[in-house]
Amino acid sequence: MKTEFFLNKRTFARLSSWILPLALSACAGFSADGGIGRVSSLSEERTGHPVQLVKPDAREERLAQLLSSPLTPDSATEIALLNNKRLQVALADLGIAEADLVQAGRLRNPGFSFGRLSSSSDTEFERAILFDLTGLLTMPMRRAIEERRFGQVQLQTALQAVRTATDARRAYFQAVASQQSLRYFQQVDLAAQASAELAQRMAAVGNWGKLEQAREQAFRAEVAAQLVRASHAARVSRERLVRLLGLSDEHASLKLPDRLPDIPATLESSDRIESRALAQRLDVQAAKFETESTAKSLGLTRATRFVNVLEVGYQNKSTNGSPRADGYEVELSLPLFDWGTARVRRAEAIYLRSLQRTADIAVQARSEVRELHSAYQSSHQVARQYRDEIVPAKKRVSDEVLLRYNGMLSSVFELLADARSQIASINAAIDAQREFWVADTDLQFVIHGGSLLLPMPAAAGGVPASAVPSAAH
Predict the structure, then answer these.
(1) Which of 83, 125, 235, 279 has the fewest CB atoms within 10 Å, i.e. the most exposed one?
(2) Which domain holds residue 352?
C-alpha cells in the first residue's frame, strides 16, 4: 500500500536536515589492522607467538631462518602460525566479518524514480527520491550486533590459531619420537643381523642346534618387519608435520632433533585449573559472544516485527499549464498476511539453542580439563619411572650379563636373550616420553583454547544483522 503526502521543499529540507547527518555519522571505515591485533594478542598470551600477516618475501626469509636449524617446539609453533594455510583462511574470514561490520554502519543508497505521462493536451512528470528510513532507525542496533559478531569471529580466529599451534606441537613430538624409534630399530636390526650370522656359523660347526638357529632367524625376521613399520611411521608423522606447518616440497627437508626433550622435574600446579579454563578458554568466550549477539538480534527482530519496509522521500509533480506540486512519499508494507510471529519464534529458538550450547561447552570444559590433567600427571609418572627405574635397571642387567659373558660365566644365549628383552623396554620408554609431551600439549589447549572433542564453532553464529528486513527486501 502506498500513501502520498505533498509538502513544499522547505519542509522536506527540514526533514532531511536530521536524516543526512545521522546517516553520515553512522558511517564507519575499516580498521588499520583488520582486527588481527586482538587475534594476535590472544594467540601470544596462549602460545607465546603472535599471528602475523606478512608479505611473501618476508615470510620466505623467516622460514629459511627457522628451517636452517633443527626444529624445536617453539620454532614449529612459529612456522605454523606464520604459514599454515587453514589459518590463513580463518584470517580471510575475519576480513569478511569486518566488511559486514562496516556495511552495517552504512545506509542503503537512496532511490530515484522518474515518470512521464502525456495525453493529447497535457504532459505530466513525476519525480521522487526515497530514503530507507527503517534502515536508518535500526542502524545503531544492527551495528551493535555486527560488532558483537565481529568480536566473536576474532575469538574464533584466535581459537583457530591456538588449535593450529597445538596441532603443530603435537605433530612435532610425534615426528621426533617416530624418528627416535626408527634409529633405535636400525641399531637393533644391525644386532639382529649379527646374531643371525653368528647362529648360522655356530650351527655350521655343530655348536648350535636347529632350534637355536631357527629362533635367531625368526628374531631377525621380526626385527626387519618392525623396522619397516617404524620407517613408515616416521615418514607418516613427518609428512603430517610438514602439512601442518604449511611447507611446500622445497621445504620438506626439515631437520629434526635426535631425541625428545627431557621431561620436566616438576608438574604445573593444578590449583583452580577448572576455573582458569572457564575464564581463559576461547571457545567459552566465543559461545558467550554468540549468545549475547543472538539476544540482541532477538530484540531487533521484535522491533521490526510489523514495520518491515518503511521508506520516506521527496516527491514533486508537474503538469503542463499547472504549477508544480511538491511533497513527500511514504511507503509502508502492511502486515496483512505475515505478522512476523514466525521470525520472532525462530529468533527465540536460536537464542535458546545458543544458551544451551554455551552451557554444554562449560560442562565439557570442566570435564575435559580434569580428564586431560589426569593424563598429564599419569604420563609424567610413567615416563619418569621408565627414565629413573626401568631403563637404568635394564642397563644394569645388561652390564652384568656382559661381564659374566666376558668372564665365561654365561653363554652367548643369555647375552642375545638379554639384548632382545631390552627392545620392548627402550621402545616403551620412548613412547612414554612422547605421550607425556602430547598430554602436556593437549592440557594447555583445553585450558587456554577449546575442546579436543567438540568441533570448531561456526564462523559466526546467531541472527546476522544483515538479515534485518529493510526496504530492499
Answers:
(1) 279
(2) 31-106+138-305+340-467
